[in-house]
Amino acid sequence: MIDHTVVELSRLQFALTAMYHFLFVPLTLGLSILMAIMESVYVMTGRDVWRRMTLFWGVLFGINFAMGVATGIVMEFQFGMNWAYYSHYVGDIFGAPLAIEGLMAFFLEATFIGLFFFGWNKLGKVQHLAVTWLVALGANFSALWILVANGWMQNPVGAVFNPDTMRMEITDFMAVIFNPVAQAKFVHTVSAGYVTGAVFVMSISAFYLLRGRHVEFAKRSIAVAASFGLAAALSVVVLGDESGYAATEHQKMKLAAIEGMWHTEKAPAPFTAFGIPHQNAQENSYEVKIPYLMGLIATRSLSGEIPGILELVDRAEHRIRGGQVAYAALERLRADRNDAEARKVFDQYWPDLGHGLLLKRYREDIGNATPQEISQAAMDTVPQVAPLFWTFRAMAGIGFYLIAFFALSFWWVTTGRLWQKRWFLRLALWTLPLPWIASECGWFVAEYGRQPWAVEGVLPTFYAASGLALHEIAITLAGFVALYTVLLVVEVKLMLKSIRKGPADTALPPDPTPATAPQAAAIARNAAHG
Amino acid sequence: MDFIPFDYATLRLVWWLLLGVLLIGFAVMDGFDLGVGALLPFVARTDAERRVVVNTIGPVWEGNQVWLILGGGAIFAAFPPLYAVSFSGFYLAMFAILFALILRPVGFKFRGKIDDPRWRGTWDWALFIGGAVPALIFGVAVGNVLLGVPYHFEPNLRPVYTGGFFALLSPFALLAGLVSVALLVAHGAGMLVLKTDGPVAARAARYGSLAALLGAVLFALAGVWIANGIPGLRIESLVDGNAPSNPLAKSVVAAPGLWFDSYRAMPATVLAPIAGLLGALASALALHRRRGGLALVASGVSLAGVILTVGFAIFPFLLPSSSMPSASLTLWDASSSHLTLWIMLLATIVFLPLILAYTTWVYRVLRGKVTADSLGDNPNAY
What we know:
- The structure holds 2 protein chains of 2 kinds.
- Helix content of chain A is 70%, strand content 5%.
- Chain A contains 20 helices and 6 strands.
- In chain B, the strands form 3 sheets. In chain B, strands 1-2 form a two-stranded antiparallel ribbon. A two-stranded antiparallel ribbon of chain B has the order 3-4.
- Chain B is globular and about 65 Å long.
- The model of chain B has no long low-confidence stretch (mean pLDDT 95).
- By secondary structure, chain B is mainly alpha-helical.
- The longest helix of chain B has 36 residues, at 8-43.
- In chain B, a hairpin with a 5-residue loop joins strand 1 (151-153) and strand 2.
- Helices cover 69% and strands 5% of the residues of chain B.
- The interface between A and B is large, with 84 and 76 residues.
């Protein structure tokens, strides 16, 4: 079996590199669309301030994008590096969305990003606008395919285990793409990215207004960000991926853990707004409950019952016993692949195979597991409740705060009163880190809440790791931490330098060739008529 | 999508070819970015010159790098065991590549942001590492593929790698690494001769033609070495191209000279090493005559030839095992399922032509020489 320390360090490295990567992704998603909107206004109205806005936010976008690319390569490679058995076991399904992400999305985004920066004086206005939109489109398609891949880890649909190849294989690709968990996650994640972009633009513009610099520039930027941000903030919460939590057994476990709901409650279940969960005692102290709310959120009904943690543990124990049967049949099939009786048993019990593998933590010959080992393995399906309970509340709290924040901004922008409210501008400044905190908390809930599974019900995380030597994982973990820390310091420093320098000093490239002016005029005319 | 018009064996062969296309795409497209990075400190001495060099590839390198990312993704999707064994087996070497590649995007973006010689000098070296180190390690990895890598499988197909990092640095593997560095440097020099003029182009032509000559000589030397001392593998059991992917179901023999099997069976494949050799020599000549475009085509042909040479030599193997040859991954027993290969082929048929079309358009827009003057009026230049 893989050394426990190696598994834990591999998990730590994946978590750190993924969460670091996701410092840059949401801003890329949001800011690319915001820039495309600003440039569209420029092309339609021909007013130069909108071009300066696109250029200035583009400079900050570029710094952020470079970090996203640098840390994204690591993500593509470390499944094979640190999770070799995972790559073998589910690569038949999981590899395809990653490869299609490259083909359909990242190629588009990365090829046109160069023209976005270098094409201002080589392209017509409309052509350059098209390039900007293609960059934004590429970034958003990227998110789609990555979340199709991640959604499959949460809800592994459209695949079966093949005893001949000892791995999961795809049976229904459409089911993988239209996986409800993946779709909910996609909308939730890109909306969160849009919110991040909007908060970023709001905060920096508020900084200029407080200093009395670049006032016209800042007001317009805030106007765009406030309306875009309000729509996005509503979308994050309303189309949040709570709906996906009813989809599967372990998603239910995650939901119960988020809620600290140890026992099944009568429908409609209350929402625990506050409490201190105790993992070993399996209870919470100081609970404050809001009646009905949980049942409404999770089942969208008054009658849907949400199972509690201990009930789900009972179900898991049952499936572990099924997994032992499946594993025994698999061993017989491996000895003789024509053993028809074994195949019949396996076909009946294979969905429980993953649960059987949970016993591998305790013994190789899992068929001989003691009742204590089986109930211990069943308890392993419970993730640590307290961290999930709190990170979820931090994320949701920030989500609701941001709806209020953008609703107020939007109201005061449209009535022209925002510019006098210095306290609100200061609040906007302090709001800057919140969307990042919410995003990181959200991923923590999604991934830590999936434990002990790498792929829910299919492959336990400890079983998925590469058999690396301890010194190998130690070297790379230290290397990533050192390099990423230095780069983060440099990145923030350059961002601050560009922000202090401000848009007025962003030198302008010469106007695009006059040949394209009629095109722009035509678009402006159409816009006016439409 | 459930109806698959090609049998499993055909799709496996198609994906073996597509893997070649992607690797060649990476070597030809991102190869000159790596070569330019490796040449940066030597062909450009002043800050103005270095800005010119950085900006020859500045607008395009990001798109080019996607060939590598797609290559990784395609190996994952089409040959999952190959992805699992090679990426975990070459663990520290992969980390070194990642470390170097991480320096590249930030090097490009950060370098020009602060006007200070020490700042810019630091990022110039970062860009050098980001070009030279991957070029070397990719070559070393190919050398190790030819030598075979120590791995086997447990009965549940969990890969077990039994070598260490320093075992990868054998003399033959280092020779392969030098072939890679020399040819990619020549390829990068072709780009610099095409896109720049003055002393930068002159130095690039000089270093590049030397590198191309060296690349040709070392490539030939590697061929002689394989013929005289490096054992190849051959599948002894019957091959069923339509069987489920399980690398433990065959028997394999190892003997010297077997890496020439394919060339004996299909003499036309000899064109690959010939292209590798003549392409490098033609690139040396074209660089010497300062014909950048021609040099770029010639070194591209050479890179394609070298990759195909290796692919043909080890065919149908993908990653030979030195410690348990019968566990070696081949294209017949290390692929994805029939359906996944088909879905991925459909996606490739739709998107690869689109990628080629818009990439061509972007290069057309950006055509022309990069000079210090042309950079002056673009605030977004690096």
